[in-house]
Structure formats: structure tokens, C-alpha cells
Amino acid sequence: QVLLVESGGGLVQTGGSLRLSCAASGWTSSTSYMGWFRQTPGKEREFVAAILWRGGSTYYADSVKGRFTIFFDSTKNTVWLQMNSLKLEDTAVYFCAAAGNLITAAQVMSVNSYTEWGQGTRVTVSS
Predict the structure, then answer these.
(1) Do the beta carbons of residue 97 and residue 3 sit within 8 Å?
(2) Which one of 1, 14, 48, 124 has the lowest number of neighbouring Cβ atoms within 10 Å?
(3) Rounded CA gap, 74 and 106, in Å?
(4) How many CB atoms lie within 10 A of CB 52?
(5) How far apart are CA 81 and CA 118, in angstroms?
(6) Residues 6+ apart with CB under 8 A from 97
(7) Using a CB cutoff of 8 Å and minimum separation of 24, what contacts does 47-50 make?
(8) What confidence tens digit (pLDDT) does each residue in 69-123 have?
């Protein structure tokens, strides 16, 4: 079982930056994708970004393209989410997640494809 621990959340003003990290342990060969999702009260968890662990292919939600970057450090089993030009609507709890082999982009972006989840880290963007 993969254990995921997020960190790096906090309070930032609009236009600012934050970098989230997700440290993974208990890694298995069946883990292929790492993703970031976010959730606000009363709303469903939504896809933010994902990366193919061994190949590096990345996927982004339209709302964060050009502002967020997902990347990993394989030596540390850590996935990062660099968030720039933050907006008020980026305020949410951000979750790291792991998935096995996925075929389509739609699967990569689906919350239902991910079987392991971290506890979440809160990001608050203020004006």
C-alpha cells in the first residue's frame, strides 16, 4: 500500500506562489500515475494535474494550465506541484493521489481512477 503525505499548503495572496509536495512510501511497481486533486466545501473533488511516473507525461486541468507545474523527483519518491499566479478560486484542500496503469487521458483525470490518497493540505489564496 502506498502512503502519501502532502505538505506545503498555506496562506498566500493573489498572484503569489506555493509549492506543494507529496512524499510517497510503500511504492509498488503497479503505481504509474501520481495526481493532484482539490476540493472545496460542498463541491466534488476535481482534477488539477497528473504525471506519468516513469515517462514524465503530464496532464493539467484547463483552469491551471500555464500556471501550475507538476514534476517529480524519483530519487526522493516525491511529486511536486508548483503553483504560480494563484487566484482566489485556487483556494481548496489539495490532495495527492496514486493510480495504477491508465489508458486514456480521461482516466488520468478521473478521481475514480486513483486508489491511494493523502490526507490533504490546505491552500488559501487571499486578496
Answers:
(1) no
(2) 1
(3) 25
(4) 16
(5) 14
(6) 4, 34, 35, 36, 37, 111, 114, 115, 116, 117, 118
(7) 47/109, 47/110, 47/111, 48/81, 48/94, 49/81, 50/108, 50/109
(8) 999 988 888 999 999 999 999 999 999 999 988 989 999 999 999 999 999 999 9
Q: Which residues contact 126 (CB under 8 A, 6 or more apart)?
A: 11, 12, 13, 14, 88
For CA atoms 95, 75, 19, 102, give the dihedral sign.
negative
Q: Which three cell numbers stand for residue 10?
A: 498555506
Stated length of the chain: 127
CA dist 90 and 101 (Å) reads: 28
